[in-house]
Specification:
Elements: H1 2-24, H2 27-43, H3 45-57, H4 64-70, H5 74-88, E1 97-102, E2 108-115, E3 118-123, H6 128-139, E4 143-147, H7 153-169, E5 177-179, H8 186-192, E6 200-204, H9 207-216, E7 229-233, H10 239-251, E8 260-266, H11 272-281, E9 285-288, H12 290-296, E10 314-320, H13 322-333, E11 338-342, H14 346-355, E12 360-363, E13 382-384, E14 392-394, E15 400-407
Parallel strand pairs: 3-4, 3-6, 4-5, 7-8, 7-11, 8-10, 9-10, 11-12
Antiparallel strand pairs: 1-2, 2-15, 13-14
Helix pairs in contact: 1-8, 2-5, 2-7, 3-7, 5-6, 6-7, 10-11
Length: about 425
């Protein structure tokens, strides 16, 4: 563990030096670095894909959802590069004036956005996080230390090399984006206790990873928790919209955190059986409560199913007594991530959007839009389900804090 602590100390000290430079870097310079990283990703696409192929070949034992998260294709590599270009074109939050006012004594106050400093990001499976996290941290004026999962080690190293190529070509330090290449788990522990070197930790992965980070961290944590996401199909739902939204939410990509896990259907909705049948026909293993079992004959859920993030082609379904019952179920079993309502009744929709306490709530749209890119953020570090600092897709603004600037003219306090 001593070697791990020393490794992270060296990386952390280098990151703090880089962070001071990044905090003062003009927008154009940061954008040039990120665009250069995008160009390097495209230029090195073959190398990145070859590294990913090695990771996929060594990934025996991973489930289908995890393999899908790990897999890179030419289209996904291009989407990664396009995301970097988008991030480079976003408004720079650093130095943004949030508020200003003046007191009767003549003191003038400003609250302005500033970078967080050094961000540690610990993540699993998805190699695109390497690119997203590195670009977002840099554009928000932060240095970062990345530690990906062993299953994506080769992919992460190849993507990181492309990022550094763009950063250095722009004249910024290579230590602005560092990757922990050693897969020793002790290095994760060293990151979690690196108070004074790392300002905030962002875990992005399964329950086990997040639980470890929250239990061991001695620095603040911005948590990305389970996506126990619900869709409530109201009695006033348009059947065509309901069918398309439910199928897309569950099955477009089952392994993403925005996938629907539980479908709640108003017992007065006339086409409940059709929704279940459509899910089954699309390859989904559907389990239901007593009422939906009686209606359709599908297998019954177990109690734990309501609290399980499947990240697979499986869903739990319940018939509920209107919006009140739907709200109660979501409150009891949801993870405050993403929940949606399908209805043509604007009053019911407004109530749902107001009362569901989740980071993202949608009306007549797929839960798969729970993604920073779809919000226009270019990319995201993750989706925060907490209530402090940042919530929902965490992008540039979520990677800043603020300070107060006070302007006087000789005032002293009585």
């Amino acid at each position: 563990m001593t070697d791990a602590i020393e490794t992270i100390r060296i990386m952390g000290e280098a990151a703090r030096v880089a962070a001071r430079q990044l905090a003062l870097a003009p927008t154009l310079l940061k954008a040039t670095a990120v665009r250069g990283a995008a160009a390097a990703v495209r230029a090195n696409a073959a190398t990145i894909l070859a590294a990913n192929a090695e990771d996929m070949a060594a990934a025996g034992g991973l489930g289908a959802a995890m393999l899908d998260r790990l897999l890179l294709t030419p289209a996904r590599v291009e989407a990664m590069a396009a995301g970097l270009d988008t991030v480079a074109g976003l408004a720079d939050p650093v130095g943004q004036l949030i508020n200003e006012w003046q007191q009767p004594n003549g003191l003038r106050f400003e609250r302005v956005r500033v970078p967080l400093g050094v961000i540690g990001i610990i993540y699993e499976s998805r190699p695109n996080v390497t690119a997203d996290a590195g670009a977002l941290c840099l554009m928000a004026g932060n240095a970062c230390i990345l530690r990906g999962g062993s299953e994506a080690a080769r992919s992460n190293r190849s993507i990181h090399a492309a990022l550094v190529e763009g950063v250095v070509a722009a004249g910024l330090p290579a230590t602005a984006i560092q990757l922990v290449g050693d897969l020793d788990r002790a290095l994760v522990g060293a990151m979690l206790t690196a108070a004074g070197l790392i300002d905030i930790i962002v875990p992005r992965g399964g329950k086990g990873l997040v639980a470890r980070v929250q239990a061991e961290a001695r620095v603040p944590v911005l948590a990305h928790l389970d996506g126990l996401n619900h869709i409530y199909v109201d009695k006033a739902a348009d059947p065509a919209k309901a069918l398309a939204i439910v199928i897309n939410s569950k099955l477009r990509r089952t392994g993403v955190c925005g996938a629907m896990e539980t479908l709640l259907i108003d017992r007065a909705y006339p086409a409940a059986a059709e929704l279940v049948t459509a899910l089954q026909a699309a390859g989904c293993d559907v389990r239901g409560d007593g009422r939906i079992v009686a209606l359709t004959g599908i297998p019954a859920v177990e109690a734990a199913d309501w609290d399980t993030e499947w990240l697979d082609a499986r869903a739990s379904v319940a018939l509920v007594d209107g919006v009140d019952a739907a709200l109660a179920h979501i409150e009891a079993h949801g993870s405050h991530h993403t929940d949606a309502i399908v209805t043509e009744d604007d009053a019911i929709a407004a109530r749902f959007l107001s009362e569901v306490d989740s980071a993202i709530v949608l009306h007549n749209a797929s839960t798969q839009f729970a993604d920073g890119g779809e919000f226009g953020f270019g990319a995201e570090i993750g989706i925060s389900t907490g209530r402090l600092h940042a919530r929902g897709p965490v992008a540039l603004e979520g990677l800043t804090t603020y300070k107060y600037r006070v302007y006087g003219d000789g005032q002293v306090r009585a």
